[in-house]
Structures are given as structure tokens and as C-alpha cells.
């Protein structure tokens, strides 16, 4: 008999708007943090020890914040808003100031993607002004690297993921489009390596496991679409994973590559074993659609948390499958 689904260990309130994006920073010292971006333009920095917001940043003129991340090995925060700006923040010594910004040109909901290519240097991919355009720049110089536009008309770019291969090939980028297509781009050569139709509806979200060359994407449909890359970098679709209710906002793989979490339009978070995509748990807490999910980056895996942000303006924190349970 399966165990009943757990309750959240605690809930964070006071974001003041729908929670579009979440990002943990728990590796540096004794002060684990969770960053959230809201539909009202605020970025909250939550102290997970006190379970309170230790700072609230306002940098996108009240426009919805759709993505936040941190630059590894620095005290810098990066955020993307629907004011078409990507902002860099200095958080050193309690500061919370915008030190630089990049004009993205997109009014859509496609989140940026960040990849560290060498110590102190990152690639930032962001949607461009044209519907299908993806721009890649280098940080902190902001030097343009390339612009990726497909030859065919695929509609708006919906989600992107930069990653680095172990084979010596340059950075690659996975992109999901409005017509349901997935494209794998070779950033160095500005060329498409492979393409697949993963959904009949727009690709709302995707995530990818570079170690095992496996990914999964979601849409407004009643299933998830798993896929993998073969040795020639061809996208190979796998059997879809059926959902009880349609609509997925975001997908996230835990750092140990054992769990996959999905943020559902049906107000639920679903947890799957990543290896076989076996359903493990349905987490019910929120009163409106779940918009974001994120696993923490605690150095001790026993302390790993799952956070879920909802349109109901609350963040739920969960501790699940942290003691070596069978999650295949």
C-alpha cells in the first residue's frame, strides 16, 4: 500500500503576487536562500532559516518578473521582467542594487537560460524582439555571441535551455516553440542539429539532463513528452507520460537525477522517478495553478527541499524522498 502524500514542511506568504519563478542558493555558508519573482514585479529573498523575506527588490517597474537566477561563485543576482529588461543585481554586504541591464526586446513569457563557460564568464540566452528569435550574449561583457532564428515558421519561442556537452562540442541550446516543435541548436555554428514535434500545442516548459542526454517537455495537453539525444545528436521521442489533468507550467529535475517535479495547472505538484518516469506522489496544497517548481542545491542531499510557487501567492516547501527511497 502506497504511503499518503506528505504535507509541506512550511509555507511562505507575503509575495504579493503570483509566483512565476523560484531559485535556491543554499551552498554558500549557513544562510540558505530562496529567490522568488512575482507577477507584481517584486523579487523576494527568503531566508530559509528564519522563513521570512530578508529583502524585497523592485527593479522591473512593476512588471512581472518571470525568471531569477544567481551567477555562481558571485553575490550577483540576475532577473528577467516583462519590461523587456534583464537586470544584474549586486547583493554584496546587504546591497540590492541594479548594476547593469540588458534590453531583451521580448514581451513574451520565455525564460532566459544561463550557462557558465569558464570561471567568471557566462552565456545568457534570451528571447529576442522577433517572434522566433533567440539571442545569446556573454556576461559580464554583454558581447553578442549569436542570434538563432529557425528557417521554418514555428511561432513564438516558448522555452530555452543552454547546456554544455562532455564531448568537446561547443555549447548547445534546446528550444521549444509555439507550434509544438523542439529544436537542438549548435550555438558555435548557429545551426540546427535536429528537430522533433513533441506536442500538438505550444511547448510551455522543458528540462534536460545533460549527463544522460534525456529531457522532457510539457504543454497545455494531458501528457508530458519525454525525449532523448542519440549519438548523432538526433532528438528521439519516447512514449508520452499521461497526466490526470491537462496543463504544465514548469518541470524540474533534482540534482541527483532521481526525481522530476511538475507544476500543474490543476493546483498540484506531481513527482516522478526520473529514471523510468514512474509517478511517485501528488502534492496538494495550493488553491490555484502552480506556476513554478525548484529543487534546492543543499550540499547535504538529506536536506534537499522542493519549492512550489503558485498563482495563489504562496510558496510551499517540501521534504520528499531524501533518505535513499526507491525513486526509479
From TrEMBL:
<dbReference type="InterPro" id="IPR015943">
    <property type="entry name" value="WD40/YVTN_repeat-like_dom_sf"/>
</dbReference>
<feature type="repeat" description="WD">
    <location>
        <begin position="283"/>
        <end position="320"/>
    </location>
</feature>
<keyword id="KW-0853">WD repeat</keyword>
<dbReference type="Pfam" id="PF00400">
    <property type="entry name" value="WD40"/>
</dbReference>
<dbReference type="InterPro" id="IPR036322">
    <property type="entry name" value="WD40_repeat_dom_sf"/>
</dbReference>
<keyword id="KW-0677">Repeat</keyword>
<dbReference type="InterPro" id="IPR001680">
    <property type="entry name" value="WD40_rpt"/>
</dbReference>
<protein>
    <submittedName>
        <fullName>Guanine nucleotide binding protein (G protein), beta polypeptide 1-like</fullName>
    </submittedName>
</protein>
